[in-house]
Design a protein that fits this description.
globular; about 15% helix; 8-stranded antiparallel beta barrel; Lipocalin; about 210 residues
């Protein structure tokens, strides 16, 4: 992880050094990216993780996490990529303050004990070598590890779009995309209310945008 990103996260969240070193080690230790890959830092205003979960088979509860930080290393010519996301749990917003407090409480995310969630990619798939590629995007899917509630499990993100362009607003190249995944929340020890009818399946929709450094 670049020194810029490490300092950014440290100043923003003031979390225990062990958490930050774990995230840094995961990024530095990954061999997924080329030595010629460009480095991009996430734009918090244009990056988020939104979720949807069935509510007693009658409606869908939705919400999201915002102000993400992280780093993207991407080389479209070598077809390599690597991404690291840091997700502040206290940014959760469902549009209902009482529901936010319930979800950030000890029965679910327990923000006091686990203030951060994270995603670290382990492998990128591109349209040329994956049957799951989406038209208009070379990036097809991304495997990685999702850590939340102190538990890490592998997940796969499917890219619905991914592109790079020169931003005349930022005055630098920008890469970004949309990804989706469905996870089983009980794998992260969040099984509250499953016996009462709230499904364990959660749909994630992830938007990232990162500016070249």
């Amino acid at each position: 992880m670049s020194q810029v990103l490490f300092s950014q996260i440290k100043l923003r969240y003031r979390q225990p050094l062990g958490v930050l070193l774990l995230l840094a080690g995961a990024v530095i230790g990954s061999g997924a990216s080329s030595s010629h890959a460009a480095t991009y830092l996430l734009e918090p205003n244009n990056s988020n993780v939104r979720f949807a979960i069935d509510h007693f088979n009658t409606s869908t509860n939705t919400g999201g996490f915002y102000n993400l930080t992280g780093q993207l290393d991407y080389d479209p010519h070598a077809k390599t990529g690597r991404i690291s996301l840091v997700i502040p749990i206290n940014s959760l917003n469902t549009g209902n303050k009482a529901f936010d407090l319930t979800l950030t409480g000890p029965d679910f995310f327990d923000v006091e004990k686990f203030p951060l969630a994270s995603f670290e990619s382990t492998k990128w798939y591109f349209a040329d070598d994956s049957a799951s590629g989406t038209a208009g995007s070379d990036v097809a899917k991304v495997d990685g590890n999702l850590t939340m509630y102190g538990i890490t499990n592998p997940i796969t993100l499917t890219a619905t779009k991914f592109n790079c362009y020169f931003s005349f607003i930022a005055k630098k190249p920008v890469c970004g995309g949309d990804f989706t995944a469905t996870i089983d929340r009980t794998k992260w020890d969040m099984s509250k209310y499953t016996l009462l009818g709230i499904t364990e399946k959660v749909t994630l929709n992830i938007q990232i945008e990162a500016a070249k450094q």
